[in-house]
Amino acid sequence: MAAFETTRPAPFGAISTFHAVQSVSNLFAAITAWNDARVTRNALAKLSDRELDDIGLCRGDIDDIGSR
Where is the YjiS-like domain (predicted)? Predict the structure, then answer.
């Protein structure tokens, strides 16, 4: 019975390239999350106090929503 070695080392620079791509992906995800929070805060800021009360929020809660 023959045994085959199926593991090979990664090509030169593959790990560095992977980390660079992952860093760019993480940066893009962070910017997207920041923008989503900004849009949500702006939409909530446009609501009246009565409308905020209907959804169980007050003006002071708007800033907390963006930090979650």
Answer: 27-63
